[in-house]
Amino acid sequence: MNVIYLDNNATTRVDERVLDAMLPFLRDEYGNPSSIHAFGQSAQHAIEESRARVAALIGAQPREIVFTSGGTEADNLAILGTLAAYPAKRHIITTAVEHSAVLNTCQRLERQGYRVTYVGVDRLGHLDLDQLAGAIGDDTALISVMHANNETGVIFPIEQVAALSAEQGVPLHVDAVQSAGKLPIDVRTIPVHLMSVAAHKLHGPKGVGALFIRRGSKLRSLTTGGHQERDLRPGTENVAGIVGMGVACELARVHGPDTWPRIAALRDRLEAGILERVGYAHVNGDRAARTCNTTNLGFESLEGEAILIAMSEAGICASSGSACSSGSLEPSHVLKAMGIDQRIAHGAIRFSLSRYTTADEIDRTLELLPAILSRLAALCVNAVRALS
Question: Would you name the residues annotated as active-site residues?
Answer without folding.
Answer: 324
